[in-house]
Amino acid sequence: MISIDYRDRRPIYEQIIQKLEDLALLGLLKPDEQLPSVRQLAAELSINPNTIQRAYFELERRGVIYAVKGRGNFISDNGEEVRKQRVLELYTDLEALCERAHKLGISKEELLERCTVLFDQNRGGE
Amino acid sequence: MISIDYRDRRPIYEQIIQKLEDLALLGLLKPDEQLPSVRQLAAELSINPNTIQRAYFELERRGVIYAVKGRGNFISDNGEEVRKQRVLELYTDLEALCERAHKLGISKEELLERCTVLFDQNRGGE
Amino acid sequence: MISIDYRDRRPIYEQIIQKLEDLALLGLLKPDEQLPSVRQLAAELSINPNTIQRAYFELERRGVIYAVKGRGNFISDNGEEVRKQRVLELYTDLEALCERAHKLGISKEELLERCTVLFDQNRGGE
Amino acid sequence: MISIDYRDRRPIYEQIIQKLEDLALLGLLKPDEQLPSVRQLAAELSINPNTIQRAYFELERRGVIYAVKGRGNFISDNGEEVRKQRVLELYTDLEALCERAHKLGISKEELLERCTVLFDQNRGGE
DNA sequence: GTGGTCTAGACCACG
DNA sequence: GTGGTCTAGACCACT
Fold this sequence. Notes:
Four copies of one chain form a homotetramer.
Chain A: H1 12-25, H2 38-45, H3 49-61, E1 65-68, E2 72-75, H4 79-103, H5 108-124
Antiparallel strand pairs in A: 1-2
Helix pairs in contact in A: 1-3, 2-3
Chain B binds a DNA duplex through residues 11-13, 37-39, 47-51, 53-54, 56-57, 67-73.
């Protein structure tokens, strides 16, 4: 379900957060579905349970999952909220990218054209 | 000429690299123009000379500046090549962003619209 | 595994880079194999950890190794790409050498003969 | 007669040494021909006289030129000796290159072939 | 424990 | 004076 890329510069807990968030966002993990336990997932990925714990804490803080004492962790049903936040993040990144493009002397038309091509490419790739 | 933002999570040397690269790319620093010396800039910014050294070293590796022992550091004149590489990097980042947008269900029209707005914002910001 | 030659005029960190790159290129260090930690290698060679750090940093930049925060440094698996780049560099150096030979009035036959001898010597040296 | 490349990583005095040695070797500077004075050359190149002095000292040590107190510096007539030493240096470099080639898994045939091509290229380039 | 960053201060080669 | 290298020791984030 989840795999870790040790070559990735980002910390492991962040990779796990992102993967689970993606799965929840794409609807591959349904609301109220139970996640693997901290120990189980830790064993599965051969990493420290603390790292899983940290990822679950952060996901709970973000409202992606909720914890029930003695029972486990479950997918929250406010997927729409999460999605909105992701969209906001994307727009922030897009803003930074536009600034870089501007500094590099790329025209708006050039950027939009490229954007269109890349977006359509993506469409076909699925 | 350069300022450091200690709230910025990026390391200091990276901030310096980016600032100087931007200045060189925008043509505000002309080819063969001399940069402040390692010690001088360190004193100016109240940071350790090693940190400046590291930034200058990386800039030299990237071909943005060149160092002459006993004389100082100077802006390189192959700014155009550096720019081309930066453009390629930007397009790679744009591709990743388009993929994210696609996953989030953002339509192409929505993305292009946003792109236009952000780009123009940037224009006005100068 | 690694030794430093203090009579060598090249900086220590460069010697380390070369040694490790050679080992990786020759396949004596397998992909995903863990390297000695920065502190450990520093202690082993009786030099400063910063110097090792610098070498590892450069090796990572070259794609020879990859670092995982909190875990260590590991041999990268794109050895073939690195090798190709090294071959290109070697041919560039060979070109400069041929030019020098030409200026010194060395005939092509003389150069090729010498090349053959040196190459075979190398073969026997192992 | 001589030009300095400040982008070159080698120290200035070394560049001057090499240039003059080359000129002597190629016979463009005849035996007993007088070199420009330290001050004159320093002024011409807009660099410190100490740097020229250092280059001349080294050239005298190598037997390329000889100094006459109160008169100036002159080209030595043992050009053949200098050439021999240069050839030795080249062979040393060739040896290192052969070792690198061997480590990279380049076959002898491959190297010789490349050598031939590059040498002939050089021939045509003149 | 690991790597990543930074400081403070030193020595060297070069100009 | 300049850049280049190195040491000693510190703090941080991550596992």
